[in-house]
Amino acid sequence: xxxxxxxxxxxxxxxxxxxxxxxxxxxxxxxxxxxxxxxxxxxxxxxxxxxxxxxxxxxxxxxxxxxxxxxxxxxxxxxxxxxxxxxxxxxxxxxxxxxxxxxxxxxxxxxxxxxxxxxxxxxxxxxxxxxxxxxxxxxxxxxxxxxxxxxxxxxxxxxxxxxxxxxxxxxxxxxxxxxxxxxxxxxxxxxxxxxxxxxxxxxxxxxxxxxxxxxxxxxxxxxxxxxxxxxxxxxxxxxxxxxxxxxxxxxxxxxxx
Length: 257
Hints:
Layout: E1 3-8, H1 12-25, E2 29-35, H2 38-48, E3 52-56, H3 64-70, E4 77-82, H4 86-94, E5 98-101, H5 106-122, H6 127-137, E6 145-149, E7 154-158, E8 162-168, E9 171-176, E10 181-184, H7 188-195, E11 200-204, E12 207-210, E13 214-218, E14 224-227, E15 232-234, H8 240-248, E16 255-256
Parallel strand pairs: 1-2, 1-3, 3-4, 4-5, 13-16
Antiparallel strand pairs: 6-7, 8-9, 8-12, 9-10, 11-12, 13-14, 14-15
Helix pairs in contact: 2-3
């Protein structure tokens, strides 16, 4: 039968279009059911026990996120399908989950399906969805964990244990309170956007700092952040006033010098 999947979208035309694309370009996927409402979807998920869900987020009454919260367990993979929604996309990225923007790009769909297939074969517990649901419940400053995709695995790290992040071409190195370093396969720009609501500040194009671990603002070399781990992060000229003004608005353990 292949990989059992269910398509959930409130517009029947979208369901039919995706089913045709999957049949044409993703022959390992078997669409066993489809639903146009959250209530119907819960019944079908219980009945069919799918391997993979294609889930629209913006649905009336029960959104895709509310649907996931209503399920007793999540032992399947999910590919979210959405129109542009900044909050929804940020939540999904924070948990290293896959999403497709409408209208669906066939190459992006094939890539997302291939990744889902690998996880299904490995029978991994879907910790990423659990992390997503925790994100949705929390206020930005109280978000506990972020999913970090490395070359070998996805690592879950407490946000309050991240001292700083440093860019390295298309990779980002996370420096943790424990002294551990984690090399992640994403750019610093992506994490700068994700972690800004959690109190992180971009001092330089190559550096992102957790304000909780900034000891002081030094005037040397045109502006430097002295961090908890004794590293000094440069502050770019164009960011200097922004950094000083941002830090002055927070309870700051240290001093502006």
